[in-house]
Amino acid sequence: MSDFVICISNDDNPASLILGKVYRRLPDREAETHDMLRVIDEDKSEPDGYLYPASSFAPIELPESAQRALMTASG
């Protein structure tokens, strides 16, 4: 799966997720077995990210320059 996802639904978490925003996905195989994804959200206070339903996101492929910029921005 892509290292980046785009938020396609924030109905359950409008304060934490912005619809249409690209988020960095962190690897978490156990979470994925439960249809969850670990992402770095708007809070950014938790470097290990937070779990959200996978259905809230769609995987996307980004150019390498965009990936570098987002990796730098997300710490």
Q: Which descriptors would you attach to this protein?
A:
single chain; about 80 residues; alpha+beta; SH3 type barrels; five-stranded antiparallel beta sheet; globular
Mean pLDDT: 88
- Element pattern in H and E: EEHEEEH
Total beta-strand segments: 5
The chain-level structural class is alpha+beta
What is the number of domains? 1
Shape call: globular
Radius of gyration, whole Å: 11 Å
CATH fold naming: SH3 type barrels
Helicity level, as a percent range?
Answer: 10-25%
Q: Can you summarize the main beta sheet?
A: 5 strands, antiparallel
Describe the structure.
It contains 2 helices and 5 strands; from the N terminus they run ββαβββα. It is an alpha+beta fold and 75 residues long. The chain has a single domain, classed as Roll (SH3 type barrels). Strands 4-3-2-1-5 form a 5-stranded antiparallel sheet.
Secondary-structure blueprint:
Layout: E1 4-7, E2 22-26, H1 29-33, E3 36-39, E4 50-53, E5 57-60, H2 64-73
Antiparallel strand pairs: 1-2, 1-5, 2-3, 3-4
